[in-house]
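Mods, move this if it's the wrong board.
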Amino acid sequence: MPRWKYSYAFLDPWAKREIRRRLLKAVAIPGHQVPFASREMPVARGWGTGALQITLSLVGPLDVVKVIDQGADDSMNAANLRRFIHAVSGARTTQDALEATLIQSRHRIPEERLREGQILVLQVPIPEPLRYVEPSDQRARELHAFGDYSALWVDIFEEHAFLGRTQKGAAYPVLVHGRYVMDPSPIPRWDIPKLHQARHITLLGAGREKRLYAVPPFTQVEPLAFFDKPFQPEVIRGHCRRSGVNHVFLNALPQEDGTLVYEVSDQGYLEKLLAGRETGELFVETRHGD
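Not the wrong board. Structure tokens:
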């Protein structure tokens, strides 16, 4: 795409300024949903337009950008977004989470612990954590204002009462800085602890619903749970078919014979393991599968 036909990083300067101002408010009020004027983007709404607008409003020519989808750098969605960001900004791209200054992701937080100064941008389809217990957006915003999350607590209680466990595999609600409950995007429960007291900043964008929110560095993030039914991430079963490890999140891949094989979800981390390269400190090191 010839860059001279567009403003730097595709968005016009007024759009980028508006998004940056909204992000400042989101960082100042952790977990609070901030409305913004979501623009039309050259990808369909629901394919990461909110996060893409955040990325384009922040990226500079000296940035190093990583884009992942379900942990993979080479999926169609991730590859297309990465090519577009590079074409309109000139920023270099990478698959190494530790090398990147700006990471846009759908469904996963990298396994290696991010450092201060790095920015993680998460794509969010549904930003409202109360959507499934309170269908009215107006009423949901009133409940956020009052800090009334009793319906969510009842929902979690009923899951444990009837099923003996939570059935929320992703988008598990979390309390941020002791005030707002937020939807952490469709990341798996495995990734929830990575948000607590993280060194990096996490920005979340929902283009279709025109909402931004954020988790600043070193912020308390607690998944909603009862003291006698503590929060539990997924139990990882099996071993990665390529590296043999089972200490990080594994994708279960169905086979033609009906069986499952497993593979490390974080492609950048897996490539380091296979190449025998030194890896960084992990976010989660204590959970090992059966």
